[in-house]
Amino acid sequence: MSTPPISRGFHGRGSSGKSTRIPPGQHLVTDFPVLSAGPTPEPDLANWKLTLEDGETPLGEWTWAQFNALPQTDLMVDIHCVTTWTKLDTNWRGVSVDTLLEAVGLSEPPGPFVLLYCDGDYTTNVPSEDLLDGKAMVATQFDGEPLDPEHGGPARLLVPHLYFWKSAKWVRRLQFLDSEVPGFWEENGYHIYGDPWREQRYDGD
Amino acid sequence: MTVTDLPASKPKLQWMTAIVREVIDETPRVRSLVLDIPDWPGHRAGQHVDVRLTSDAGYQAQRSYSIASAPEGSHVMLTVERLADGEVSSYLAGDVVAGDQFELRGPIGGYFVWTSALGGPVFLVGGGSGLVPLMSMLRHRAAAKSNVPATLLYSSRTAEDIIYRAELDQFAGQGDGLTLVHTLTRQQPVEWRGLKRRIDRDMLQSVGFAPELKPRIFICGPTPLVEQVARDMRDLGHAAQLIKTERFGPTGR
Predict the structure, then answer these.
(1) Complete DSSP assignment for A9-52
(2) B228 touching A, CB under 8 A?
(3) pLDDT grade for A15, boundaries at 50, 70 and 90
(4) I want to staple A137 with a disulfide (CB 3.0 to 4.6 A). Which of A39, A94, B133, B250 is the partner?
(5) Confidence of residue B10 (pLDDT cuts 50, 70, 90)
(6) Which residue in A has a C-alpha nearest to residue B102's C-alpha?
(7) What are the chain A neighbours of B245 within 8 Å (beta carbons)?
(8) Whether residue A162 has pLDDT greater than 70
(9) Strand partners, B92
């Protein structure tokens, strides 16, 4: 790689004291920015359902009450948005994807890829193994409070080791597939996998 | 989603060197940078770039900025609001002079995009520096000589915070189907005859197009404005798929 041009007079905050937990190209924030491509859907807990599917075959379905009766998991993780902000030590509660699989009697995922469907027609794709072994959950609480609709409430995916667009807001359906199907941002120029530590922001990174 | 929203798979977006050709003070806090980018591949109105600054000590900082210029323009323009404690914005909208250089890559984003071929009507709602990607659309509309019916509802704090004011007035005066509506939320000049309040549902209903006309709606600004306007538009009967949002705020910039 050639040497980048120096931006004359730019000093910035400097690297000294920068946490090693901040991936390349990211910067630390303390608030919680909101980024969505369209309107925030109105929560409708009476009609809310989460479904798990193997291709077109239903594996399981939970109402809001049934979902909240599943064993809950707490996670404290760092999150990284592709728009370059990183937030450390965020606290989440929800149901791990491992628990969802167990609840439908599966010890392993029925397919190597997952396509997630959300209210507002949003979709995103994640390899199944990235959702297992405690790495991901369907989260319903942030910092001990019900998840705010603009942050994805009532329930969003949380897969914190990938850029945060993969942590799909307002998630309703997890579909296991034999091949990878790109989701919404993945169809719109963003990286198919999205590892912040390899700076996989855009298609081709 | 329509086929036009789907770009073909591309090779890696390379970092390119941008040389600042001209600096334009738009408002006390907002500045435009006109850039020479020899390798620029072209863009569509509404897209953004990632900017990377490198200090002489090798420290780098990276942020996203919307493109303000039309695809038809000979130069790429970025318009940056200087934020309190803005590590990158305080440099781009403060220290930079013509001849300075930095890196950028893009264009990025295939969703918050309008091209004249998509047609209309088009309802643009902007708050503060959230006008920037909408301005790219209006500049594109003018350059393409489109007469697609379009309305811009633009909220600023005070008259001196209005970005691109003269150019907007010029566009609106061409009689080609663009309606320009300002609202000033904090302070108005004595002679101000326009709207004087934050954007609300009544304003959106009276200024915007009827849902039956199926306008394409683009909303950009601070998160509270975007959240409220998007909700109000949906409540007024506009289909969620026609409402596209982009957020500007003190973080992520």
Answers:
(1) T--TT-STT--TTS-TT-EE-SS-----SSPPPPP-TTT-EEEE
(2) no
(3) confident
(4) A94
(5) low
(6) A7
(7) 36-39
(8) yes
(9) none
Nearest to A136 by CA among A107, A106, A167, A113: A167
Number of alpha carbons in the 13 Å side-chain half-sphere of residue A127: 9
Instruction: Report helix, strand or coil for B6.
Output: coil
Closest alpha carbon to B121 in B147, B140, B143, B144: B147
> B216 contacts in A (CB within 8 Å)?
none
Lookup result for tokens 């633009």? B154
| Spatial separation of the C-alpha atoms in residues B231 and B225, rounded to whole Å | 10
Best mutation site among A2, A10, A150 for testing chain B: the one with the most B CBs within 10 Å?
A10
Question: Nearest chain A Cα to B108, which residue?
Answer: A189
CA B157 from centroid of its chain's CA atoms: 17
Give residues 49 to 78 of B whose Cβ lies within 8 Å of A.
Answer: 50, 52-64
Handedness of CA B218, B224, B229, B234 (dihedral sign): positive
Q: State whether residue B36 sits within 8 Å of chain A by CB.
A: no
Residue among B225, B190, B197, B191 nearest B181 (CA): B197
Identity of residue A37? A
Q: How far is B51 from chain A (nearest CA, A)?
A: 10
- Give yes or no for B23 touching A (CB within 8 A): no
- A79-119 pLDDT per residue, tens: 999 989 999 999 999 999 999 999 999 999 999 999 999 99
Q: A126 near A143, Cβ under 8 Å? A: no
DSSP string, B195-248: B-S---HHHHHHHS--GGG--EEEEEESHHHHHHHHHHHHHTT--GGGEEEEE-
Q: Write the pLDDT tens digit of every residue in B110-153.
A: 899 999 999 989 999 999 999 999 999 999 999 999 999 999 99
Amino acid letter for position A26: Q
Reading the block at residue A17, the tokens are: 């004291």
Q: What is the pLDDT of residues A173-183, one digit of tens each?
A: 999 999 999 99
What is the distance between the terminal CA atoms of chain B, rounded to a whole angstrom? 27
Sheet holding A171-177, edge to edge: A57-63, A49-54, A171-177, A113-118, A123-127
Cβ count near A74 (within 10 Å) = 11
